[in-house]
Write a structure and sequence with these properties.
Strands 3, 9, 10, 11, 12, 13, 14 and 15 form an eight-stranded antiparallel β-sheet that branches. The chain has a six-stranded mixed β-sheet with strand order 18-19-17-16-26-25, with helices on one face. A five-stranded mixed β-sheet has the order 20-21-22-23-24. It is built from twelve helices and 34 strands.
């Protein structure tokens, strides 16, 4: 009677979520909400007639169908099949896995598919941010490839792969943010390894038809323009702005940056900011969508991309840094918008630096403040400047660097065409500072082959004789910086004389670059295109190939300790590596050298040559401190393209410190060792 009474008054087990027949043996804890696969963790699974076990906390007494024993007591844990309700003791888990009795291990209600027509199902054990353990399954066998998301709260979500955009956080190599477009929802998942993250991202890209092969590149054309508007309203889109942007040409990305954009808003607008942004949105039209926009008082940046690229634009961020009065006022400073398109990271910066002929050092200091301030705010490695983090950086604005020459002679040379402009460039402040590497280190700029863009009459293309005798100069500039192995060509760099209203003339530049597609592991492509028979272990194979760095040495490193020395060590970072690797530290030296056994072998995620050819190896050098946080000394990067030939390659790379200046050099040899 007591047992019957307990049967009716004790709550039943909480409802179990139905599982797709593509699942294999795994368990889930009701008490602590933890999923854990049984037997085949990290494998590609095929459908089979095996039980789909869930771990349950029993709320009533029951029998074990395996050993026929009685499960006594409330709150005991065990396993129950979600299909046929087959129940076993917790202590029978290992026994059922080891058993060869296929009769007991077969679920009569589970469905199966013939192995000859089956494509593998990819399963990943993950941790959901803020929740706990979860499970992801990619099923390519349905008419539309599906992604199953099993959350710790026992919710199951079924989403088409074409509806999911995978975003890779910069600083978290094992995390993946899944953005579900139709639900406007994002889920952050933590994987067991970087390798598994890359496999899921590659599988989603391939099954959603965003990428048809690996590796591959897509050509992009980028337009960037800068204009100091002189606090005057812009012309209407249909008038002169088209001369500046040339919207009829085929650009993939468009970036406008303006300075002194502060005027009384025109009819229909509530603010100057809304007026300007709506004006350029009307100019580019419906073929483009806005990636992001940001303002710092009268400094504004807005970026557009073609609608066809919408699913490929991820990790969008924007930051500002003021360098005006007292270092906080925003009349001078910089605005940054960055994002990833496919697997290429782009950054656009618009700025307004210190004015007046003689303030060269102030302009250099403004640049350093902008970079350091944005580095501290942006989602990147804060030990080193953010300018080292992107494949391509485009920097434009009213940099205010002047021409140091007699004003009358400058005006005469301005009207003499190419010969006059080439002569003027010899006296340009910015090109001299670039040559001395005091500012914009590693940035590139073509020689301006157009008239100086400042100081004009606001309505005429002449340089007036103002009372301050300001010298016409190329104040408005566009520079760029790219990683060593990236392909980029500047197609155009010019000023638009027909846009009036300001004492500056707008400048634009057009670039063509190669945008990388997501890498898709060859094993995934092969298994999806040629379905295997039975179960195939793809994800569980750990790579054994590695990169060997030998004869590693540092030269003339910066001192970070009061004794005039440093205690350096090197941290190797790359998307191609399974994790970060660190050398032994050297004490009291600015010219360290490491024995080969003091440098670890750098294990790679994938052995494919195509994968290594598109990645970079970063050398992050730190000064070890016993009591305080280790100080960053400098950072350098080396392209891995061409290393898969198996030969030793000598390298010599410059280190750049957080202050942007050269902090020493790193030399050595590097060799890729493929282990079958």
């Amino acid at each position: 009677l007591k047992l019957q009474f307990l049967y009716f008054i004790v709550p039943r087990e909480r409802g179990l979520p139905p599982l797709p027949s593509s699942s294999n043996v795994y368990t889930m804890s009701h008490g602590d909400d933890k999923w854990s696969p049984l037997g085949h963790e990290g494998m590609v699974l095929s459908r089979a007639k095996t039980h789909k076990f869930l771990r349950v906390t029993f709320r009533r007494f029951t029998w074990c169908d395996w050993c026929k024993g009685f499960i006594w007591g409330l709150g005991k844990q065990g396993l129950r099949c979600a299909e046929c309700k087959y129940t076993i003791h917790k202590r029978c888990e290992e026994e059922i896995l080891r058993s060869t009795d296929e009769g007991k291990k077969t679920c009569k209600m589970a469905k199966s598919m013939p192995a000859s027509t089956e494509r593998p199902i990819f399963r990943f054990k993950v941790k959901e941010k803020g929740s706990g353990d979860g499970l992801l399954e990619v099923d390519p066998n349905e008419s539309v490839p599906m992604l199953y998301i099993y959350s710790p709260n026992r919710d199951k979500q079924k989403v088409a792969c074409t509806d999911v955009v995978a975003e890779k956080p910069v600083l978290h190599p094992r995390q993946l943010e899944l953005r579900i477009k139709s639900r406007n929802k994002s889920i952050t998942m933590q994987f067991a390894s970087r390798r598994e993250r890359e496999q899921l991202a590659g599988a989603l890209a391939y099954l959603s038809h965003r990428v048809t092969s690996s590796p591959s590149v897509v050509p992009l054309r980028v337009w960037m323009g800068t204009w100091n508007m002189g606090d005057a309203p812009p012309p209407e889109p249909g008038q002169r702005l088209n001369d500046w942007c040339k919207i009829h040409e085929d650009y993939d990305i468009i970036c406008f940056t303006v300075q002194e954009c502060s005027y009384k808003p025109r009819h229909g607008y509530k603010s100057c900011e809304e007026d300007w942004f709506k004006t350029v949105e009307a100019l580019v039209g419906k073929r483009y969508f806005r990636v992001d926009k940001q303002s710092l008082q009268s400094i504004r940046v807005i970026v557009f991309a073609k609608v066809e690229h919408r699913d490929y634009v991820t990790a969008v961020m924007n930051k500002t840094e003021a360098t005006g009065i007292a270092g906080v006022y925003g009349n001078k400073g910089g605005v940054c918008v960055s994002f990833s398109i496919r697997e290429t990271r782009l950054c656009f910066v618009g700025c307004h630096l210190a004015a007046h002929q003689e303030n060269i050092e102030d302009r250099n200091a403004n640049y350093a403040e902008i970079v350091e301030g944005i580095t501290d705010k942006i989602d990147g490695r804060k030990d080193f400047w953010f300018t080292n983090e992107y494949h391509h950086i485009f920097w434009a604005g009213d940099l205010n660097y002047r021409i140091d020459y007699d004003r009358q002679k400058v005006v005469q040379l301005c009207y003499q065409g190419l010969e006059g402009w080439r002569e003027l460039y010899k006296y340009d402040q910015l090109q001299k500072e670039l040559a001395k590497e005091t500012v914009f280190i590693d940035f590139n700029e073509s020689q301006p082959l157009f008239q100086p863009t400042y100081k004009y009459d606001r309505q005429k293309d002449v340089y007036p004789d103002d009372s301050k005798k300001r010298i016409p100069s190329w104040c408005d500039r566009i520079l760029w910086k790219s990683m060593a192995e990236e392909q980029i060509v500047q197609e155009d760099y010019f000023a638009t004389q027909s846009v009036h209203g300001s004492d500056h003339r707008p400048v634009y530049s057009v670039f063509k670059l190669d945008c990388r597609n997501p890498y898709i592991p060859r094993s995934i492509i092969d298994n999806l295109n040629a379905p295997p028979a039975g179960m195939v272990d793809v994800l569980d194979r750990k790579p054994r190939s590695h990169i060997a760095v030998q004869q590693l040495a540092g030269h003339n490193l910066d001192s970070k300790d009061p004794n005039g020395y440093s205690d350096p060590y090197v941290v190797f970072v790359s998307n191609a590596l399974t994790e970060e690797f660190k050398t032994k530290r050297k004490l009291k030296t600015l010219n360290p050298s490491w024995a080969d056994e003091e440098v670890p072998l750098l294990k790679v995620c994938f052995e494919e040559r195509e994968y290594l050819d598109i990645e970079y190896l970063f050398f992050n050098v730190y000064d070890w401190d016993k009591a305080n946080r280790d100080d960053p000394v400098g950072q350098a990067h080396l392209g891995l393209k061409g290393l898969t030939d198996g030969r030793k390659h000598n390298f010599c790379v410059r280190l750049f410190g957080k202050e942007g200046r050269v902090a020493g050099t790193i030399t050595g040899t590097i060799q890729y060792n493929a282990v079958p």
